Amino acid sequence: MSGLLVIFILAAVALIIELTQKTIDVDEGIEELKKAEQAREDILNEVRQELSEQDIEVLIADNDTVIRIPESTLSFESGEERIPADQRVQNSVRQIGLVLHQAITRDDRLQYLDTVFIEGHTDSDAIFYRGKGNWGLSTDRAISIWNTWLVGLEVLPAYSELENIYGQRLFSVSGYAASRRVQELEETPRQKAENRRIDIRFTVKPPSIADLERIKPNSSKE
Questions:
Q1: Which CATH number is 29-209's, of 3.30.1330.60, 3.40.50.10490, 3.40.50.720, 3.90.1010.10?
Q2: N or C: which end of the chain has fewer CB atoms below 10 A?
């Protein structure tokens, strides 16, 4: 009987140790995610504040995950992917790139970022645009922003050299046409203008598969 009691006690102790370790792992994972969220929040707030002091308007959107460049700051010509030659617009795009680079590379923030997407968005007005329509137009506008930052800015490390913690390129470009509208109804020129924009979307480093496997129930028995 005493032998069974000893076995029971040892099993109980082992279970307590295992559950305690899983709690620690979960707490560490949550803390790491909090740090990543804080790094992203700091980047967005710094970028908006710094640009505001230079009279360049950008917005924080989508639950504090996006820096939005509204049409009031960057307005493309209809059916045109190139950044307008207007000096004010050109300067604004360059300054956004400089301030963004400074915020991303400050301290240890890069280790918390997974990908930064430069996203092009249009209104729903149909357009031919080289046979690619708004999908091609929105993508090419995002590429124009990227090329300006890549070629026109003297920053170190260069935009093309920025990598996430996995050694992958940090920046990517994409175009969404009118599929992700800010204003679903486009009954006024102002509503359409809000949908024509460039978004800079930040995704943070997700938990790894190994981390999830380690903390899931019964993982030690599989």
A1: 3.30.1330.60
A2: N
Q: Which residues pair with 60 in a beta bridge?
A: 67
Q: If DSSP codes are grouped into helix, strand and coil, which group holds residue 116?
A: strand
The predicted pLDDT at position 30 comes to 77
Residue 139 CB neighbour total at 10 angstroms:
20
Count of alpha carbons within 13 Å of 137, Cβ hemisphere only?
Answer: 22
Q: What is the mean pLDDT of each run of 10 residues along the chain (222 residues)?
A: 60 61 58 90 98 98 97 95 97 98 97 97 95 97 98 95 96 98 94 96 79 55 45
Query: Is the distance from CB of 204 to CB of 37 less than 8 angstroms?
Result: yes
| C-beta atoms surrounding 54 within 10 Å | 13
Backbone angles phi, psi at 203, to 5 degrees: -110, 140
